[in-house]
Design goal:
Layout lengths: L1 H8 L1 H8 L3 H17 L1 H10 L2 H21 L3 H29 L5 H18 L2 H10 L1 H22 L18 H10 L1 H13 L1 H18 L4 H14 L3 H11 L4 H21 L7 H26 L8 H29 L6 H7 L1 H18 L8
């Protein structure tokens, strides 16, 4: 999560360092997310066939190499290659962590474990705001990102020596014949749960991820007129203040599966209405306090996305083949992140600088559209969804 969102607070500095405009700047997180999305299905197959711990090692090594290259890249082409490496590593991390959860914990605890996974991941997102901003200011670009690479290598060693695919003494059972890639995908798409998980992830996870990945910090500075320090602190506080939401939601839907439907519909409705108000506010963005409330709802929805979306994804899918279903859920959410991030960058590029609040209202029209359409589709999907897990 640190590597996925770290470019947001460094966006303005990256624009100056690599001498690019908003459209090319958005290509840095977008290429990372495109690689992430494209590799979701292969990552799910690796999770099911190679095993989580080995796949995690591959991902962490690629990510460490990418962030080191990003630290020393003298120009835009190498920086782009570095973000591709980071995206390659990122593609396998979360899927394999929740794949471990499916192997280590009973079905009723899966949502709660996924929630705590999201919480710890959010700590990386928090570290990618104020702490990274301070490191960039105090040590400079190269040292700050080389330090991030060193931490990633330490995490790689921890996975190598600590993480195991199953609890000690667990019965593996008779190996089942692997099904084809096409059969795995068809199985996941035909099941109702993964389809709902895909829509839910796209609606409640994507909007704030787009802000955290790139455009939240520039908007607060350029569009809302906040000082850079205030903007980074605001995003950090939002990240920390919403962490409690995921375990609470995970515990609720683990104990009461019927709660998933009203929670999902209510959250999607609030997120979509918030974006419609934001882009439709006359004369510029809403007052800063309302913007912060809107961002807080989005941040809370994002940390709720994992326990709900991946719990839906397991409905009707054997535990040993959850990787493909989870990869499709992840793919849907981040495909929307890519579309809305690119859309915002393209709109800002077409508008004259300096960019003000109205410019960002126009730039955020794509995310307002995807949120609204997704909320309607999710409500239709959940209208007659079973109260208990299928």
């Amino acid at each position: 999560m640190f590597h996925r969102n770290g470019l947001a607070v460094a966006a303005l500095e990256a624009q100056e360092r690599f001498q690019v405009g908003p459209a090319l700047l958005s290509a840095l997180p977008v290429i990372q997310l495109v690689v992430y999305v494209v590799l979701q299905l292969p990552a799910g197959l690796l999770a099911d066939r190679l095993g989580p711990s080995r796949t995690l090692l591959i991902g962490l090594l690629a990510m460490a190499a990418g962030v080191v290259l990003f630290a020393v890249a003298p120009g835009f082409p190498l920086a782009l290659a570095a973000r591709m490496l980071i995206g390659l590593g990122d593609a396998v991390i979360f899927l394999n962590v929740i794949r471990l959860a499916a192997l280590w914990f009973p079905r009723g605890q899966y949502a709660l474990v996924s929630a705590f996974t999201g919480v710890f991941g959010s700590l990386g997102q928090v570290a990618s705001v104020a702490p990274l901003s301070a490191a960039l200011a105090g040590f400079g670009w190269t040292v700050a990102f080389l330090g991030a690479g060193a931490v990633t290598l330490v995490m790689t060693l921890l996975v190598l020596f600590v993480v195991r695919d199953r609890p000690p003494g667990a019965r593996v059972g008779a190996p089942s014949a692997p099904i084809s890639i096409r059969a795995s995908v068809v199985e996941a798409v035909r099941a109702r749960g993964p389809r709902v998980g895909m829509t839910n992830h796209a609606v409640i996870q994507a909007p704030y991820t787009m802000l955290a990945a790139l455009w939240g910090y520039p908007f607060l500075v350029e569009g809302a007129g906040l000082p850079s320090a205030t903007a980074s602190v605001a995003l950090t506080v939002l990240g920390v203040a919403t962490l409690w939401v995921a375990p609470v939601v995970g515990a609720c839907i683990g104990r009461w599966p019927a709660a998933r439907r009203p929670i999902a519909i209510t959250t999607a409705t609030l997120v979509s209405l918030g974006w419609l108000v934001f882009v439709g506010w006359p004369g510029g963005p809403p007052p800063t306090p309302l913007v912060i409330v809107h961002f807080a709802v989005g941040a809370g929805a994002t940390v709720m996305a994992a326990p709900m979306s991946f719990d839906f994804a397991r409905d009707g899918i054997p535990a040993r083949r959850t990787g493909v279903a989870s990869s499709l859920v992840n793919m849907s959410g981040f495909a929307v992140v890519v579309l809305t991030t690119v859309g915002a960058g393209a709109i800002l590029e077409a508008l004259p600088e300096p960019h003000g609040g109205v410019d960002y209202q126009m730039a955020f029209l794509p995310v307002a559209t995807t949120s609204t359409v997704g909320a309607v589709l999710l409500t239709a999907q959940l209208w007659r969804y079973p109260r208990e897990r299928p």
